[in-house]
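W.,

You were right to be curious about this one. When I first looked at the sequence I had no strong expectations either way, so I just let the prediction run and decided to look at it fresh. Below is the sequence, 683 residues in total, followed by the output.
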Amino acid sequence: MSRRKTERQLNLVICLLSTRRHLTAQEIRATVQGYAEAETESAFKRMFERDKRELRDSGIPVQVGTGDAFSGEEGYRISRSDYELPEIELLPDEAVVLGLAARAWRHASLGEAAANALFKLRSAGVPVDTEAAPGLTPAMRTDEPAFGPVWQAIRDRRPIAFDYRKPGESAVQRREVEPWGIVNLRGHWYLVGHDRLRDARRVFRLGRMRGGVTVLRTGPDVVVPEGVDLRSVVSRQSAVPERTAVLRVRTDSAHDLRRLALRVVPGERDSTGDGWDTLTLPFTSTSALVRRVASHGSRAVVVEPEQVRAAMADHLAGVVEGSVAAEEAGDVEDAPGADAPARGPRSADQLRRLLMLVPYALGRDVRVPEVARHFGLSEKQVVSDLSLLWMCGLPGYTPGDLIDVDLDAARETGEIIIANADTLAQPLRLTADEAASLVVGLSLLEALPEAQGVEGGALRRVGEKLRTAAGSAVSDLADAVQVRVEVDDQVARTQRTCAEALNGGQRLHLRYLSGYLDQVTERDVDPMGLVVQDGQTFLEGYCHLREDVRLFRLDRVLELAVLPFAAQVPEGVSRRDLSAGVLQRSERDALVTLALEPSARWVTEDYVCESVTELPGGGARATLRTPAPAWVTRLALSLGREGRVVSPTVLAKDVRTEAERALGHYRTARNPVGLVETTSSPE
């Protein structure tokens, strides 16, 4: 946005706020400074139409009415009742949860909208507390490129068109959908809507949309059916396991299988304490069970049923065959490093920035550095904004009409002093995006017992106040964007215990199952906070075993105890910067490249990749970083024929060796480990 354009639009806002009647376009042309630059009538009309559209897109309600009673010509004004933010009174506990709701979007695409909402609320005197409850870090991520246009389409009630690749299919299919809403389930965003081409209700995962999403601007608005429950549509009820499998697993291994087992029978141990245990495991899908068991390589073996045992042998043979074929074709390499694509900063809307800054600065001690931090600008740019504001004011534009800004104070001491700006003294009403980002953020807090426990139902009260202040359109949008964080009873208990230790300043002892390795470790942890992100809850704390800050996913905590002495985080140790997500990548991490069949593209959706290259037939070559290459070995074993390691070569050979070792169990006698078989039912 050019400086002259911003100045003209700001003058237009001041003019339309100041008038008591609707002004015709010609009156505006003759009155508002800047329109004189239009040399012809058609040039003025184009300029004025663009300005009106951009003001409305910024949430400024330009009204149309009768400007000339004799000719009936249209006129324009801005009603203060529609422009100004209604009064909102927050109790202290409500201010806490509202600040938490805004923090949920801090590192996501709606982070700017949530931050601007708080800026407007503060300028209206609402005491929003973003620093309260520092131990809680709710975090919402919107990494999918489709999120922005889908959100916009839901907000504007417009249909969309996009290409979509279903899991396991190589070709994309064109979809035209009337969006009803989006739901975040287990860290992934899903679109619910009516598929026009199939004339049926459908659910689409945003990460599987290919190319751009087109918002269709013609035709009637989308009508959402009454009573539709977005969460129930997206949530898939797991089928009740109807079968059981008998497995042998090595001592102190296959811990995730042990947690799912109906029965665990310890086997005999040798002189080193090693041996085989027998597990009875419920399952519904043979293919899912095979992938899960295969990830443990030779340390887990299916004994029965025979159908699953045969499927395991075929799956492991596929790993070996794929590795051999790749080596013979020379398709195993040591690929060079690849840098993640850089993301440029988003440019702020200068007009909306100024409309927020004026009411915020009037009568308050506001400094240039504070404003620069909020909007992500340099201090030089803030001073430049203020100098533009100094050139705007009421029609007439005499010194007594212009906004008074002390530029010397801004440059020399950083103090922002604004006067003669009564027309813009009240903050602008929250936009749909700003209000909805806070309301949706509140729904994320429902998963936090600490937020639920705020006295008097602060979550519910703040949500009602925001909806009332923002209007029905915002309420509809907020209802169409839902977050579902599902936790079982064990995780909920673990979370409560962590919160109690955090509040009491006590150390915790954990038995923890690594997310990378099939390994359980004992940890003493000084808790520093709780983080909710990607559908999971994490304990953040100083780990005495690793002598560093670590994040522990609560569903991997096997045992938890509060120790009877105080937590002591070493001086100078601080919480992690989660702007890039919970997964902390490093240049020291191993760089691994995988070749994926179309059916395994979910790897690129579930894991952060450095780069993804399309392959003929719908497959992909994905490069990712990991601090634990052994985890990639387990992933490759679980993929079978659907994926293989391309580089580094040593890792590809490790996968093949382990697959051959595991396959050996199925090429020998039916009882692969020489133990007494059992087919008894679980108790």
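Here's what jumped out at me. The mean pLDDT is 83. And, maybe more interesting for your project: Residues 110 and 617 are 35 Å apart (CA to CA).

Coffee later to discuss?

I.
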